[in-house]
Amino acid sequence: MQLGRSIPADARSLVIRKRSLPLMTPLINWRKGTHHKMRAVIQRVSEASVSVDGKAVGSIGKGLMVLLGVASDDTEDDAGAIADKIATLRCFPDDAGNYEHSVHEVGGCVLVISQFTLLGDCRKGRRPSFSSAARPELATALYEKVLELLHAHALHVEQGQFGAHMDVSLVNDGPVTLMLDSKRTF
Hints:
By secondary structure, the protein is of the alpha/beta class. It has 2 domains: 1-35, no CATH class; 36-181, D-tyrosyl-trna(Tyr) Deacylase, Chain: A. 32% of the residues lie in helices and 31% in strands. α4 links the parallel β6 (109-114) and β7 (156-159). It is globular, with a radius of gyration of 20 Å.
Protein backbone atom coordinates (compact mmCIF):
# COMPACT_ATOMS: atom_id res chain seq x y z
CA MET A 1 0.00 0.00 0.00
CA GLN A 2 2.76 2.41 0.88
CA LEU A 3 4.32 2.01 -2.56
CA GLY A 4 0.99 2.77 -4.23
CA ARG A 5 0.65 6.03 -2.28
CA SER A 6 4.04 7.25 -3.45
CA ILE A 7 3.02 6.95 -7.10
CA PRO A 8 0.86 9.81 -8.41
CA ALA A 9 -2.77 8.82 -9.08
CA ASP A 10 -2.38 9.37 -12.85
CA ALA A 11 0.60 7.01 -12.98
CA ARG A 12 -1.20 4.30 -10.96
CA SER A 13 -4.15 4.23 -13.37
CA LEU A 14 -1.78 4.18 -16.33
CA VAL A 15 0.05 1.15 -14.92
CA ILE A 16 -3.21 -0.68 -14.30
CA ARG A 17 -4.62 0.08 -17.74
CA LYS A 18 -1.48 -0.43 -19.79
CA ARG A 19 0.20 -3.33 -18.03
CA SER A 20 -1.96 -5.26 -15.61
CA LEU A 21 -5.29 -5.57 -17.40
CA PRO A 22 -4.14 -6.73 -20.83
CA LEU A 23 -2.00 -9.45 -19.25
CA MET A 24 -4.52 -10.58 -16.63
CA THR A 25 -7.79 -10.40 -18.57
CA PRO A 26 -7.25 -13.54 -20.72
CA LEU A 27 -6.14 -15.50 -17.65
CA ILE A 28 -9.19 -14.39 -15.68
CA ASN A 29 -11.56 -15.25 -18.53
CA TRP A 30 -9.90 -18.64 -19.05
CA ARG A 31 -10.36 -19.56 -15.40
CA LYS A 32 -14.02 -18.59 -15.49
CA GLY A 33 -14.49 -20.84 -18.50
CA THR A 34 -15.55 -18.06 -20.86
CA HIS A 35 -12.52 -18.24 -23.12
CA HIS A 36 -13.40 -21.35 -25.15
CA LYS A 37 -12.60 -21.48 -28.83
CA MET A 38 -12.41 -23.86 -31.75
CA ARG A 39 -8.89 -25.25 -31.97
CA ALA A 40 -6.92 -26.79 -34.78
CA VAL A 41 -3.52 -28.42 -34.88
CA ILE A 42 -2.23 -28.31 -38.44
CA GLN A 43 0.60 -30.47 -39.68
CA ARG A 44 2.18 -30.11 -43.09
CA VAL A 45 2.47 -33.65 -44.42
CA SER A 46 3.85 -35.54 -47.37
CA GLU A 47 1.13 -38.14 -46.70
CA ALA A 48 -1.51 -38.88 -44.08
CA SER A 49 -4.31 -41.36 -43.56
CA VAL A 50 -6.96 -42.29 -41.05
CA SER A 51 -8.61 -45.66 -40.52
CA VAL A 52 -11.46 -47.01 -38.41
CA ASP A 53 -11.56 -50.69 -37.46
CA GLY A 54 -8.64 -51.37 -39.82
CA LYS A 55 -10.44 -49.82 -42.83
CA ALA A 56 -9.06 -46.63 -44.42
CA VAL A 57 -11.66 -43.84 -44.35
CA GLY A 58 -9.48 -40.99 -45.59
CA SER A 59 -6.02 -40.44 -47.01
CA ILE A 60 -4.05 -37.70 -48.73
CA GLY A 61 -0.66 -37.13 -50.27
CA LYS A 62 1.02 -33.73 -49.96
CA GLY A 63 -1.04 -31.29 -47.93
CA LEU A 64 -2.29 -30.55 -44.44
CA MET A 65 -3.53 -32.91 -41.75
CA VAL A 66 -5.83 -31.02 -39.39
CA LEU A 67 -6.94 -32.12 -35.93
CA LEU A 68 -10.06 -30.09 -35.10
CA GLY A 69 -11.59 -29.52 -31.67
CA VAL A 70 -14.93 -27.74 -31.28
CA ALA A 71 -15.72 -25.82 -28.07
CA SER A 72 -19.14 -25.63 -26.43
CA ASP A 73 -19.69 -21.97 -27.30
CA ASP A 74 -18.42 -22.10 -30.89
CA THR A 75 -20.56 -20.82 -33.75
CA GLU A 76 -20.49 -20.89 -37.53
CA ASP A 77 -18.32 -17.75 -37.34
CA ASP A 78 -15.66 -19.82 -35.56
CA ALA A 79 -15.94 -22.52 -38.22
CA GLY A 80 -15.52 -19.86 -40.90
CA ALA A 81 -12.48 -18.33 -39.23
CA ILE A 82 -10.74 -21.69 -38.88
CA ALA A 83 -11.60 -22.86 -42.41
CA ASP A 84 -10.42 -19.58 -43.98
CA LYS A 85 -7.17 -19.70 -42.04
CA ILE A 86 -6.51 -23.33 -42.98
CA ALA A 87 -7.22 -22.65 -46.66
CA THR A 88 -5.07 -19.52 -46.90
CA LEU A 89 -2.28 -20.29 -44.44
CA ARG A 90 1.07 -19.89 -46.17
CA CYS A 91 3.05 -22.78 -44.70
CA PHE A 92 4.58 -24.27 -47.84
CA PRO A 93 7.99 -23.00 -48.96
CA ASP A 94 8.96 -21.24 -52.14
CA ASP A 95 12.29 -21.90 -53.89
CA ALA A 96 14.09 -19.72 -51.33
CA GLY A 97 12.63 -21.71 -48.42
CA ASN A 98 10.26 -18.97 -47.26
CA TYR A 99 6.70 -19.89 -46.31
CA GLU A 100 4.93 -18.25 -49.25
CA HIS A 101 2.39 -20.79 -50.54
CA SER A 102 -0.95 -22.08 -49.30
CA VAL A 103 -2.13 -25.67 -49.59
CA HIS A 104 -4.25 -24.69 -52.61
CA GLU A 105 -1.29 -23.03 -54.36
CA VAL A 106 0.84 -26.19 -54.09
CA GLY A 107 -1.98 -28.48 -55.24
CA GLY A 108 -2.22 -30.11 -51.83
CA CYS A 109 -5.12 -31.77 -50.03
CA VAL A 110 -6.52 -31.48 -46.53
CA LEU A 111 -7.35 -34.33 -44.14
CA VAL A 112 -9.58 -33.13 -41.27
CA ILE A 113 -9.99 -35.28 -38.17
CA SER A 114 -12.29 -34.39 -35.27
CA GLN A 115 -10.51 -34.42 -31.92
CA PHE A 116 -12.38 -33.16 -28.88
CA THR A 117 -9.33 -33.83 -26.70
CA LEU A 118 -7.80 -30.59 -28.03
CA LEU A 119 -10.17 -28.90 -25.58
CA GLY A 120 -8.83 -30.91 -22.65
CA ASP A 121 -7.97 -28.89 -19.55
CA CYS A 122 -5.11 -30.45 -17.57
CA ARG A 123 -4.52 -27.63 -15.09
CA LYS A 124 -6.16 -29.40 -12.13
CA GLY A 125 -5.60 -32.93 -10.93
CA ARG A 126 -4.32 -35.79 -13.04
CA ARG A 127 -7.31 -36.38 -15.30
CA PRO A 128 -8.13 -33.92 -18.10
CA SER A 129 -11.48 -32.16 -18.06
CA PHE A 130 -13.36 -31.90 -21.34
CA SER A 131 -16.14 -29.65 -20.03
CA SER A 132 -15.35 -26.95 -22.60
CA ALA A 133 -15.70 -29.36 -25.55
CA ALA A 134 -18.93 -29.13 -27.52
CA ARG A 135 -21.66 -31.76 -27.23
CA PRO A 136 -21.66 -34.17 -30.20
CA GLU A 137 -24.66 -32.54 -31.90
CA LEU A 138 -23.03 -29.09 -32.07
CA ALA A 139 -19.54 -30.47 -32.69
CA THR A 140 -20.75 -32.58 -35.64
CA ALA A 141 -22.55 -29.64 -37.23
CA LEU A 142 -19.55 -27.30 -36.92
CA TYR A 143 -17.07 -29.99 -38.02
CA GLU A 144 -19.17 -30.52 -41.15
CA LYS A 145 -19.36 -26.73 -41.65
CA VAL A 146 -15.55 -26.54 -41.63
CA LEU A 147 -15.44 -29.34 -44.24
CA GLU A 148 -18.03 -27.53 -46.39
CA LEU A 149 -16.11 -24.25 -46.21
CA LEU A 150 -12.82 -25.94 -47.13
CA HIS A 151 -14.56 -27.49 -50.16
CA ALA A 152 -15.74 -23.97 -51.06
CA HIS A 153 -12.07 -22.95 -51.24
CA ALA A 154 -11.69 -25.51 -54.07
CA LEU A 155 -9.65 -27.88 -51.91
CA HIS A 156 -9.69 -31.66 -52.05
CA VAL A 157 -10.81 -32.60 -48.53
CA GLU A 158 -10.74 -36.01 -46.86
CA GLN A 159 -12.06 -36.67 -43.37
CA GLY A 160 -12.04 -39.02 -40.46
CA GLN A 161 -15.17 -40.54 -38.95
CA PHE A 162 -16.66 -38.24 -36.33
CA GLY A 163 -16.87 -39.83 -32.88
CA ALA A 164 -15.06 -43.04 -33.86
CA HIS A 165 -11.83 -44.42 -32.44
CA MET A 166 -9.41 -43.68 -35.27
CA ASP A 167 -5.87 -44.69 -36.14
CA VAL A 168 -4.04 -41.76 -37.72
CA SER A 169 -0.81 -42.12 -39.67
CA LEU A 170 1.22 -39.30 -41.15
CA VAL A 171 4.60 -38.27 -42.40
CA ASN A 172 5.17 -34.77 -41.08
CA ASP A 173 6.95 -32.66 -43.71
CA GLY A 174 9.52 -30.37 -42.12
CA PRO A 175 8.34 -31.01 -39.49
CA VAL A 176 5.82 -28.18 -39.59
CA THR A 177 3.12 -28.16 -36.89
CA LEU A 178 1.00 -25.07 -36.21
CA MET A 179 -1.80 -24.31 -33.77
CA LEU A 180 -4.84 -22.20 -34.54
CA ASP A 181 -7.83 -21.07 -32.57
CA SER A 182 -10.88 -19.20 -33.77
CA LYS A 183 -10.47 -16.37 -31.22
CA ARG A 184 -6.81 -15.80 -32.21
CA THR A 185 -5.42 -16.08 -28.69
CA PHE A 186 -2.32 -17.88 -29.97
